[in-house]
Every structure is written in structure tokens, then in C-alpha cells.
Amino acid sequence: MPTTIPNQKKAWQERLAALKNIPPVLLLMWQSGRAMVAAMLGLRLVVALLPLAGLWVGKLIIDTLVGAVKHPGAVPREIWFYLAAEFAIAGLGSILGRAIDYCDGRIADRFSREVSVRVMRHASRLDLASFEDPVFYDKLDRARLQANDRLGMLNAMGQLLQQAITLASLAAGVIVYSPVLFALLVLTVAPAFLGESHFAFLGYSLAYSLTPMRRELDYLRDLGTKREGAKELKVFGLGPYFLERFTRINDEVIGRTRRLAGRRLRVGAMLALVGSLGYYAGYAYLVWRTLEGALTIGGLTFLAGALAGSSSQIQQVFSTFSGIADQSLFLSDLVEFFAMKPRIAVAAHPVPAPRPIRSGFEFRKVSFHYPNAARAVLKDLELRIEPGERVALVGENGQGKTTLVKLMTRLYDPTAGRILLDGVDLRDYDPESLHGEMGVIFQDFMRYDMTAAENIGVGRVEAMGDRERIVDAARKSRALATIGKLGDGLEQLLGRRFEGGVDLSGGEWQKIALARAYMRQAQVLILDEPTAALDAMAEYEVFQRFAELTEGRIALLISHRFSTVRMADRILVLEDGRIGEQGTHDELMGSRGRYSNMFELQAASYR
User: Start-end ranges of CATH 1.20.1560.10 in the chain?
Assistant: First the structure.
């Protein structure tokens, strides 16, 4: 038992500390729609005072009626005014309630849009290293959910304000008559508040711990339903295996959630009875005082209503505040996500990338290992690439070819050493300007579920509307013939995600991706396995014009196909994170080294 006390203390500390997340969210809500938020607050202020006004008018009506019964005669004229006032209060409450719902809906839409836009914008500024970290992905998943899952919290904040004002107005009536009576209400409702707050925190902790399992469920659901895995699913008979694994994990998630919900139901019901006891004890006291003649029937009605309203509002304020406090724990992920800074720092006074490039790239004793990885992928690498030079990188998997590209494009910074462009460290350049001079197609290139024109145009977004440039890029990559066969040509929707979309073969997609690189018209062209999905004939056609298309540019080519790399001016063989050998195809074949052996092995498979 003693071991749970520090945990409870820590839980409350975390709960209170999480309240600091609320001001940034309120600011976000205000910025998403100032006029609508102001209107909502004004409406809630008016509605919050209506219960007290209604009780007071009801008191006047009852006292007037009691007086009329005791002293028969003409109907008191003021009774009609009181009835009209009560009707006006009820009607106004109904109308303003609908107006508040309208404002809440509008605010929720704008807040959801604002958060989603900011999450996307901030994610675009973070480094590649972040997206390759599973812990970051858990945080990003939770942050993305805040755009929708925390919408109820916005409504709760407005409700809390309204409830607090209503409570203050009703409590004033009770306190004026008996401060002890109000204190009794607070003391009997407090346990229910503490219990709800405790279980809400346990709910957050459970949801937090279940995030990896829910991600795995999403992954398994995709494996079992997406077309990308349909072929292996059928051929290997994987359906039952994935289904069993999904069911097992899902049952565990449901079981843990059900057990917590059961405990919350049992404890919450007992504590709610304590709160009811406080109200009825106070109500019995008021009835006794009325029987003694200390209160009129109207006074009893007013105070009983104020007492009931105060009891209800205290519970609602505690419950709403507890909910907001615990919801703010979920907001920690959103706030922490926005607080994340890129690891690729921008220089205090960045310089634009050179145009034209005059002396090229130089790697000086560059070493690199990925975060949380002990093994260095590159080790003291020395390399120079001249302007207009076509360089090919070859080597076995895991030797650092793609890593070298990531460093050259400054998706990562070296762990040690420097990379220079025209004698200036890459870290001193403006990253956007640097990327603007590079056209890169990775082996895991994107297949956008957009039109063919957009799939190519994203290579240079600012020139998306330049149809002539798009056509020229498609011609260079040999994608124009593929596009010509599509029903709507460049306007044909590609992919199967949306209705009317047409899927392409792997080779056809690769030509589209190549067109994207040519669309960029950059000084540096980097192709990572650019023809992996092409057949031999298509590959031959693409590289027939390789020299022409890379004229005057730095071209870096990564490929396992030696028929491709032999077209380069210089071939670099990476071994164990270093350049094992380099030269032209003929020079390397003549040296009878590693390159020659790999070439002979590949050539033998075609004989």
C-alpha cells in the first residue's frame, strides 16, 4: 500500500503541471476565430445568469400566489408581469442555447483546421531523423489526434466558464442565508471530484501506454485490407495469421479498457451517493426552517432551487474542471510536438546556394552514424565531386550509398568532418535554397494519388502551372508515352485511393518519378536506383540520353546495375563506409579489384 502513495502524488503533480498546456490551446482557439469566440463567451455569460433570474421570478410568483390565497380578492396585476418574465427567461435560454451550439460548431471547425495546418507545417520543418524515430511517430500520432479528439475540450472550457458563473450566482443566494449549508455541499461533492479526477488520469495513462498497440492494430488492419499486400496475402495464406494477431491485440486493448471502466463505475457510483446525501441534508434543513415560519413558501422554493442548482453546478464544475485538467495531459503531446526543434540548425546568417556551382562538393573526413546506433555508416570519407561530373556509387547493401546522398542533400549533418560546396560548409547555406538546387529521386520514391501532371509538377511546385515544362520533363524520362495511353492524359488521376484513379506498373511509376527530377531543372541531379523497376529495354532508352540530360550538372547515380553505372565519368566503390576504389569502368575492370569481381558476377547471371 505505501508504494502507491508516491505514485498518487506524482499523478496529481503531473495533472497540475499539465494545466500549463491550456493557455496555448486557448490562444490557438482565439486565433482561429476571434469574433466567434467573443460571441460564444458573451452568450454563455448571459445564459449563466438565467437560472438565478428564473428562481427569483419563481419565488415572486409563489409568494404572490400564497398572498392571494390568504387574502382573496382581485387577481394581483403583477402576477402577469412575473409570468411573462418567466416565459421570456425560458425562451431566451432556449434561443441562446442554440446560438451557443452554433458558435461551438464554428469554433470547433476552425480550431480543427488551425491545429491540422500547424501540425502539417511544423512536421514539414522537422528533420528526416525525426521521421525515422518510432518514438517520434508515437508522439506525432497523438499530436495529430488532438485536432479532432480535443474538440470536446473546447466546448468543456466554455461550459466551465458558464457553470462557474451560474454557481457563483446561485451560491450567493445560499451563502447569504447560510454559509454552512454551502460548505456542506462542497465537502460532500469533493470526494466525487477527486475520484473522477483519479480515474480520468488512469484513463490517460492507459491510453498513453496503448499507443504502440493501437499503431500495430492500424498496421495490421492496413495489411489485411490494402491492395499493396493483397497478392502475398492470398498466395501465402496470411489472412488468418493477421486476423488472429489483430484479434489478440485488440482483445487485450478492450480488456484493459473494460477493467478500468468497471472500477470507475463502482467507485464513482458510491461517491455520487455521498454528494446526494449533502444536498438532501441541506434540503431537509430548509423544510424544517419553513415549518418553523423562518421561511416563506417562495423563499423555500428559491433556496431549495438555489441549493439544488448549487449542488449540481458544484459537481459539474468539479467534473468539467477535472475533465479539462486530464484532457490537458493529452495536450502535452501536442504542445511538446510544437516545441520540437529541427536538429538541422539554420545558420544565423545563411547564404543562398551558389548558382552556378563553380568548384563542386568536397567531403573532408566525413563520418556518420544514425541516432542511437553504435555502428558508423561512413568513416573518415574523403571525396570530391567536380561541376558537371557524373559520378556513380556502387557497393553492397548497407555500405552507406544512400546515407551519403542524405548528407549531400543535408537531410542529416555529419557526425564528424565537413561537407563543402564551393568551399562553404553546407551548414552555412540556407536549407531551402540548397534544396532548390537539387533534384533527387530516391529508390522509395512517392506515388502521389494525384493527376499525372501534379505527380510531375511537384518536382518544382512553383512551376506547377507550366504545362510545357511538365511535358518536356515527361519526354526526357520517357514517361510521355505512358501518359499518352491514359484516358485523360496529364489530367488522369493516378493511384487507386480515389474514384477514377488508374494505377501504373512499377516501371511506369518510375518514369513519372524521373520526370519529377527533370522537372526540377536543378544543378545537382541525384538518382538513387532510378531504373530498378524498368526492364532492360526501358533502362537502355532512359540512359541513351543520360549524358545529354545531365550536361552541365553534377549527377550522382546509385545503382546495382553495372550496365548503368558504366556510363558515369567516375565510379566510386563504397566498402565499410569508405571509398575502396574509384575510376572509370575500364580502369576498375583493369585493376581486377572489388568492382571487377562484382561486375563479373552480375554479368555471369545473364550468360
Answer: 21-339
